[in-house]
């Protein structure tokens, strides 16, 4: 009896172990390590255009891409020859700037627009060289200073950004430059130039957000270079909040500039009419072709 029990235990314990060893030798079990995921490859997609993700410093991320519909609709007209098209669907995508008279057709890839980003407030741009496209939340705006051939993205200071519901209208005009002096401890008495092409957000309470770009010369202490031109797209708020609540560099000093004050005050009274273009950006879901 004892011998039979011993044989049974051998059959139940030893034989399975031997079988496992034999099977694992000739047919090894799959690795417990997870299989690496294959990177998706960009493939042609009918009716869509392939775009790669581009970082703020211009680096193209080859492994990050997306598709945008090739359908378009006109969403704004400056005059008979100049207009904006939105490429995409459901009022989301990239904006094209067109100037048929001067054969300018520029795809603006500096930002992707959704229906939320398209401004709901009145929008005027009588300037010919300065073309600016604001966002509804005033987080940023893209603008051109060469008649729409090239666009750059300008950030709006968090102190300046306000909800779009507070904006009465945006107007972009071709102004003359403003000269002033920049002051910072390591770069005192450095000249700056406020671009002559300027956009203004006029609020319903008659305050103004001044959207501009400026250049200033500085010393590059690391490389020993002087008179080095730096270009900063930016925006500043021309009200008491900046004056009392922020160290705003060049713009804080600019608020005391008489020419700047006259310009901002004149904008408050500027009548955008007569204006050949539309008064608002218009986008209709399903109207793209």
Description:
With 289 residues, this protein is an alpha+beta fold. The chain has a domain at 72-268. 16% of the residues lie in helices and 40% in strands. It contains four helices and 16 strands. Strands 7, 11, 12, 13, 14, 15 and 16 form a seven-stranded mixed sheet that branches. Strands 3-4-5-6 form a four-stranded antiparallel sheet, with no helix packed on it. The radius of gyration is 30 Å and the shape is elongated. The N and C termini lie far apart (89 Å). Residues 214-248 have low confidence and may be disordered.
Task: Kindly summarize this structure in a few lines.
The protein is of the alpha+beta class. It is 16% helix and 40% strand.
Based on helices, strands and strand pairing, what is the structural class? alpha+beta
Anisotropy-based shape: elongated
Q: Main beta sheet: strand number and arrangement?
A: 7 strands, mixed
Which whole number gives the mean pLDDT?
A: 76
- Secondary structure: helix percent: 10-25%
Integer-rounded radius of gyration = 30 Å
* Uncertain stretches of 5 or more adjacent residues: 214-248
- In what range is the share of β-strand residues? 35-45%
Question: What is the distance, rounded to the nearest whole angstrom, between the alpha carbons of the first and last residues?
Answer: 89 Å
What pattern of helices and strands is seen along the backbone?
A: HEEEEEEEEEEEEEEEEHHH
Annotation field: number of helices: 4
- Count every beta strand, where a strand is a DSSP E run of 2 or more residues: 16
How is the quaternary structure best described? single chain
């Amino acid at each position: 009896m004892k011998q039979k029990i011993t044989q049974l235990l051998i059959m139940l314990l030893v034989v399975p172990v031997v079988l496992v060893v034999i099977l694992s030798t000739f047919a090894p079990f799959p690795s417990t390590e997870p299989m690496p995921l294959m990177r998706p490859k960009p493939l042609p997609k009918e009716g869509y255009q392939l775009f790669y993700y581009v970082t703020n410093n211009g680096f193209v991320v080859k492994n990050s891409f997306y598709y945008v519909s090739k359908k378009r609709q006109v969403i704004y007209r400056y005059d008979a020859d100049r207009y904006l098209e939105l490429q995409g669907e459901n009022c989301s995508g990239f904006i094209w700037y067109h100037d048929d008279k001067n054969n300018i057709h520029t795809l603006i890839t500096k930002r992707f627009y959704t229906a939320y980003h398209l401004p709901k407030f009145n929008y005027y741009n009588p300037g010919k060289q300065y073309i600016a496209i604001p966002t509804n939340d005033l987080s940023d705006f893209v603008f051109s200073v060469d008649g729409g051939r090239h666009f750059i993205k300008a950030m709006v200071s968090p102190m300046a950004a306000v909800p779009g519901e507070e904006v009465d209208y945006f107007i972009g005009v071709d102004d003359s430059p403003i000269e002033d002096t920049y002051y910072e401890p390591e770069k005192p008495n450095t000249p700056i130039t406020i671009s002559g092409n300027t956009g203004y957000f006029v609020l319903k309470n008659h305050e103004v957000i001044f959207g501009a770009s400026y250049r200033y010369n500085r010393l590059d202490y690391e490389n020993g270079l002087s008179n080095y031109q730096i270009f900063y797209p930016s925006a500043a708020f021309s009200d008491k909040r900046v004056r009392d609540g922020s160290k705003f560099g060049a713009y804080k000093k600019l608020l005391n500039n008489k020419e700047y004050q006259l310009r901002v005050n004149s904008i408050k009274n500027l009548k955008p009419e007569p204006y050949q273009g539309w008064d608002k950006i218009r986008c209709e879901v399903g109207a793209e072709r």
